[in-house]
Design a protein that fits this description.
Layout lengths: L13 E9 L6 H12 L9 H27 L7 H17 L3 E9 L4 H10 L4 E6 L9 H11 L8 E4 L7 H14 L7 E7 L3 H5 L4 H16 L6 E6 L12 H7 L7 E5 L8 H4 L1 H12 L4 E4 L7 H14 L8
Parallel strand pairs: 1-2, 1-3, 3-4, 5-6, 5-7, 7-8
Helix pairs in contact: 1-2, 3-12, 4-5, 6-8, 6-12, 9-11
């Protein structure tokens, strides 16, 4: 499968690489095991000593978690045989390519799984692209996501003689175009957002990472506050939470599942959950929130639960990323 969205140009073009976390190739145990092995072997994700972590990963976690995760992936897998994350990332790239025009070649690359970042970058270089903007699709910076993308991009060229010029787009957690796209998606899910209580659920991170200087939590708070303001929500009408905990060490709080279980006891029985840190719907949003989160809330006495889909390939999101890309491509492409 090609990772490029247009035919080779007659002269060296500019490359825009949309970098995502990744997805298994299929919703079966072996494919999920390969994906989890690559993901959980990344020192940016799990920084425990290798002598301690690798035996646990290979001896316990992969054998037990892979079949369980595969069963969950099967619930959300698309009928055309690809994951929602890959589908929406492809669609997003196509929409941005249309907006930027033939001067910019747009590709996608996954940090884990296929198409890999290395494959996508080498495909660009092979057709003569000498200037590449890498845009991590993580609005909020974290060492476990954005920094890992940077590591992988540099590793892809570690043995190459001729290197392209590289730029990395910064996080866009507070950019108006991104906040506007989030608000657009929220209003599409709930006609009048102020009619219910909102949770803005972000992927979790070990508290230790934040204590050591990772700015992720602060950037999540800024995003949540700006989105609440854009939706006109009162301070008492929303809450920021963190989901997808892994392991036994303390993670960022409050925990999304725990808050969903407690809200009915606080008299809140109509809730909407948005996941502003996820660029595209995936297992963590379609199963953990839309299925398991709904079940938790309703079982605790809630009456109405809405999962606001991620930005995916919405027109406002395509417009927002195109605007951000044009800004970062300043000096490289012709501005019109």
């Amino acid at each position: 499968m090609s990772t490029l969205t247009s035919p080779p140009p007659s002269r060296p073009a500019i490359g825009l690489l949309l970098a995502q976390l990744g997805t298994p190739d299929a919703p079966d145990t072996e494919a999920v095991k390969r994906f989890l092995k690559e993901f959980l072997s990344d020192r940016r994700v799990v920084d425990l000593p290798r002598w301690m972590w690798l035996p646990l990963l290979h001896g316990v976690i992969l054998p037990t978690r892979s079949p369980r995760s595969a069963a969950l992936y099967r619930k959300i897998w698309r009928a055309d045989g690809i994951s929602p994350l890959l589908h929406f990332t492809n669609r997003l790239a196509e929409g941005i390519a249309e907006r930027l025009g033939p001067e910019v070649r747009v590709g996608i690359g996954m940090r884990y799984g296929a198409p890999s970042l290395g494959t996508a970058l080498r495909a660009m270089v092979a057709v003569g692209i000498e200037r590449i903007l890498v845009m991590p699709l993580f609005p909020q910076y974290s060492c476990a996501t954005t920094a890992s993308i940077v590591d992988a991009v540099h590793a892809a060229f570690a043995r190459e003689r001729h290197l392209p010029t590289l730029r990395f787009a910064p996080p866009f957690f507070d950019q108006p175009a991104y906040i506007d796209a989030l608000a657009d998606a929220a209003r599409a899910a709930v006609e009048e957002p102020r009619d219910r209580f909102w949770l803005f659920s972000f992927h979790g991170l070990p508290q230790r990472f934040v204590a050591e200087g990772d700015p992720y939590a602060d950037q999540c708070r800024v995003t949540a506050r700006l989105l609440a303001e854009r939706l006109g929500l009162p301070d008492a009408g929303w809450r920021l939470t963190f989901q997808s905990r892994f392991g036994k060490e303390p993670w960022l709080t409050p925990d999304t599942a725990s808050v969903l279980a407690s809200l009915p006891g606080e008299g809140i029985r109509k809730v909407a959950v948005a996941c502003p840190g996820f660029a595209a719907d995936c297992l963590e949003t379609l199963e953990e929130i839309a299925v398991a989160g709904r079940k938790t809330f309703l079982a605790a006495g809630g009456e109405s639960f809405v999962h606001a889909p991620c930005l995916n390939d919405r027109a406002a999101w395509r417009d927002a990323l195109t605007e951000l890309a044009r800004r970062e491509l300043s000096g490289w492409m012709t501005m019109t």
